[in-house]
Design brief:
Helices cover 11% and strands 40% of the residues. The protein has two helices and 33 strands. The strands form eight sheets. The protein has a five-stranded antiparallel β-sheet, with no helix packed on it. Strand 12 and strand 13 form a beta hairpin. The protein is globular.
Amino acid sequence: MTNDELRMTNCGWLRRILNWANLGIRHSSFVIRHSILLACFFAVLAFSTDKVDSWLMFRGSSALTGVSSVELPKAPRLLWSFEAEDSIESSAAISGNMVYVASMDSSLYAIELSTGKLRWRYSTSAPVQESSPGIREGTVFLGDIDGVFHAVNANTGDPIWTFRAEAEIRSSPNFSGDKVFFGSYDQNLYCLSAKTGDLVWKFTTEGPVHATPSIDKEHVYISGCDGAFRAIALATGEQDYEINLGAYAGASAALREHYAYVGTFANEVLCLNLQKRLPEWTYRHPTRSFPFYSSAAVTHDRVVLGGRDKLIHCLDRSSGTEIWSFITRARVESSPLVTDSSVFVGSNDGVLYSLDLISGKKIWEFTSGAPFSASPAAAAGHLVIGDQDGVLYCFGN
């Protein structure tokens, strides 16, 4: 159910409650009237969707849209920082008051969102580079560059199970029902039981599966190093169709309605029509020819992503026409996070930027001194991102 549908549902409940309250006013005592109005107040709170207190996986949702409804200050202040022992290139996940982030020091950390204090540390089999933690029903999932996929108790940091692929894992986990999905450099897309780690199925491609799979109701999609965008049936692991990307892709595809959006190493951004199974439009910068490694954030009318051309690009979602671009001082491999009015994105120039979504003008920046290749995560009024010096930063009011 979309946010708009949830709001409509909430309004329907509100109308019903108000009708009940009117009946109470006409036919009941003062106490009953106020009891009904009080029930109305708590019911509206219960159905409110404005407050988001979790960012459970890379890009925030199974569709990998990179969009959050959390309210963030346009110019946030640094609340705390936490130092790992090596580079943080993995993006954080947030659940309740806990932040989960992995590092090249072969560790998964659980850190309190409110204080920055370490709760526990779990040792992986090898460094964790770009595989970002994903959280499902009290379990944290991620892969390491030794090819081991880990399931860890989110409360205690105790291991639950591990699964060994045949090559490194840089893909982040995604979920559907009781299944967890990820790719490996052994050219396979894996589907495992989230509870036991047992293999349900695997699909073999013609190149390393670097990107994180995106998921809708029927399919899991992968944009691969073999230059193909593939739609794999969730239930069976069989390929339904593929679309030629014209080049290999390191970025993950973002889904919105029946379209997918992904950048490639042919210096292009593609909008793929999943009903026609063809590209809808292609964007290429008129003068700069550099690959797109950053995954796109997709709103109802815009596509925002970084390029190795040092630019942050904002495109019209329906046509692929550039709306604005913003230049940084180094390549942009961090994937943007978009709120209602702002874009937050890191650059390899060591700066975290806040840009106005409408105009692309810079609102605020924070300089760490080390590249930001990880992507921001946001929940409960906080924004969290790590840098290649191994420092995790938390910003808020």
